[in-house]
Each structure stands twice: as C-alpha cells, then as structure tokens.
Amino acid sequence: MRNKFVIIFIFLLAIFVVLWVRIQILGIRDTNENYFFNFYSIIPIFGAFVGWLVAARFGGLKSVLGRAISMLAAGLLAWGLGGFVWLWYNLVFQVPVPQPSLADYLFVGAYIFWAFGTIYLAKAAGIRFFPQETFAGKTILVVVPVLLVVLITVFYILLRTGSSSNLLSYVVFVPLLIYTGSILPLVLNLYGGKFFKATGLVVLGFFILYLAGTSFFYSVANNTYYNGHLSDLFFAAGFSVISTGIALFYPD
C-alpha cells in the first residue's frame, strides 16, 4: 500500500515540475496557467489523507506516534486548504489576495500543527519537555500558538504597507529551521531501523519548505513574485517529500 502512495506522490510532483518548466520556458507571469500551478495544494491534502490512514494503523490519537503523524497530517491539510483559498482569489475572483487573509491563517495554523507533531515525535524518542500538567507546560501550549498568529499577522501588515524587510522573513522561518534541524533528527535515534527513511524524508521535506518560505517572502518583499515562482516549486517538492515520508511509516 505504501509503495502505491509513494508512486502517486512522485507522479503528482512530476506533473507540477513539467508545468513549472513550461512556465519558465514561455516566460509567462500573469496567466491562468500560472494560477493553475497552485493546484499543487492537492499534494498536501492527499498527504493529510494518507497521514491519517497511517496514524490509524498506530492507534490514532491513542499512541504518541499516532498523534505525531496526525498532527503532521493536520498541518498538511491546513496548508492545502490555504492554497486553495489563495487559488480561489486569484483564479475565480481574479483579485489580489488580501493580507492577512484566511489563507495566511491556515498557513500559520499548519506550522502550529507541525510544531506539535515534531514535539510528539520527539516524545516518542524519549525527549522530555515541560509536562503538560504543569503551569509552564500549559503556558507554552497557549503562548506558542498565539505568538505565531500574532507574528504572522504583523508580518503581513508590514509586508502590505511596504514596511517589511528581508530580515523579517527570516524571523518567521528560522524557528522552523531550528526545530526541524534539532528536534526531528533526534527522532532518528528511535526510528533508526525501518523508519529511518520515513523520518529522514520528513526532515528533508521541512528543510525544503524552509527554502520555499524564505524564497517566497524574499520575492514578495522585492515585488518579483508571480504564481509559478521557484518558491512554489519548492513548496510542491517539500510537500511531496514530507507526504512520501509519512507514507513510509505505513506498516508492511
């Protein structure tokens, strides 16, 4: 079953790679074909579906690994839905996406789910965090999501008013690089056997998303972004790699 899922993710990515190459060769920047590229959001949505199938095989929310995969899947779904909101504004309404928009909050929601997913993976590896029943633990669970929402809102307001800087882009995405670079690799110690490839691909996928995010915000800040930009290809690739990694958790 998991091999079939992997083939599907590779096939979907190949489609968007071909479309991206076509966009670059033709040099088009503001056509329906550019907007069609945002249909790559189907990749994280399908990845979420696969993720919940995999999580169910591990007992769903009853197990730490099941909760970890469920959180990762929820993040994929949030981002995928955000992508279709973005597509709806551009392709159907044919108006600029308001900033911040529902899509933006879905995007930041995805990072919140992914953060908790990595924490659960780390817990499965035996890494201790603040216990949730303590005051510090409860505070972290409340403050971190709120802080992320406020941060992304401020960023988009600054971006819209032309007051943003390239440095602010890194302020948003460096934390993503930190926890994917420090927390997830530790999980490799636990899943060093048959889950080594699965976890490694998830780590790689998040690193690709880091490149995608910084590339996207850099291009927006410099007014060089267009639908079908290199950052969009990175997003499509990152989601394909993460989804493939999740699929490889599926038991034989």
UniProtKB/TrEMBL annotation:
Annotated transmembrane regions: 5-23, 35-56, 68-89, 105-123, 135-158, 170-191, 198-221, 233-250
Where does the source fall among the domains of life?
A: Bacteria
Kindly state which keywords UniProt assigns to this record, in alphabetical order: Membrane, Transmembrane, Transmembrane helix
- What is the designated name of this protein? Histidine kinase N-terminal 7TM region domain-containing protein
Q: Where does this protein come from, organism-wise? A: Candidatus Curtissbacteria bacterium RIFCSPLOWO2_01_FULL_42_50
The organism's taxonomy opens as: Bacteria, Candidatus Curtissiibacteriota
